[in-house]
Amino acid sequence: MSNLGRKFSEEHKNKISKSLIERGPWWVERGLPNPFKGKHHTEEFKQKLSVIRKGKKLSEEHKRKIGLGQKGKKRSEETKRKISEGNQKHQYSEERIKKAKEQCLMMAKNNIGKKHSDGVKRKISESNIGKHDVTMDKNPNWRGGVSFEPYCNIWGDQEYKQSILERDNYQCQNPGCSKKSQRIGIHHIDYGKKNCHPWNLITLCYVCNSKANFNREYWKMMYRKIMKGKIC
């Protein structure tokens, strides 16, 4: 009780803080396990904590200190797994989801037109080194480099392309088209860029054309049936 009412200088506070950080919690200093390990707060106590902390905001200085304290620390894979499992159990209310969406939209609007400094770009680049394998042949969408192959000679003939579009009434031929895109193009049904036979070409909107890059066998069969109906 001798320290009750006393005010320490900033220098003294910093010394105490430094010594506590170096020493660690009292149970670590004494070589004991964490006394709270395996224990959990009661629901009543959690509610009390929630009421006490509600509306409180950390000062910028406090945030800065927390940031400095966490700097350089890395979570173990076990900790990451536990956090992930804990987040999957959470049931967020519609109101909270709505607020989160609004915050994301606000952040996106605030960042429009902003550019990262060279220092930030360098840090982002360094942090991403080794995280992603960008080798083309390891990419699941890699098709052996077929996108670099040239098209057939007639592909450059605009009148020929126009005849395909005209044949299909300038409409996407996917019966399940969502009609989200007004832009149309010509798709190679067998994905062979050199096969420009009229029955291997079909008019699709940009959305449906993009979808055709996945589950290719399904789209190939469906569009062949559609073209077979046109032939008959």
Give a description of the structure.
The protein is mainly alpha-helical and about 230 residues long. It is built from ten helices and two strands, in the order H-H-H-H-H-H-H-H-E-E-H-H. The termini are far apart.
Number of helices: 10
From the N-terminal CA to the C-terminal CA, the straight-line distance is 99 Å
Instruction: Give the biggest sheet.
Output: 2 strands, antiparallel
Helix content: 40-55%
Find the structural class using helix and strand composition. mainly alpha
Number of strands: 2
Q: Average pLDDT across residues?
A: 79
What labels describe this entry?
232 residues, mainly alpha, two-stranded antiparallel sheet, 10 helices, 2 strands, elongated
In a nutshell, what does this entry contain?
The chain has 232 residues and is mainly α. It has helices spanning 10-23, 26-29, 43-53, 60-70, 77-89, 94-110, 118-128, 158-167, 206-211, 216-231, and strands at 184-188, 201-205. 7% of the residues are buried.
SSE map:
Blueprint: H1 10-23, H2 26-29, H3 43-53, H4 60-70, H5 77-89, H6 94-110, H7 118-128, H8 158-167, E1 184-188, E2 201-205, H9 206-211, H10 216-231
Antiparallel strand pairs: 1-2
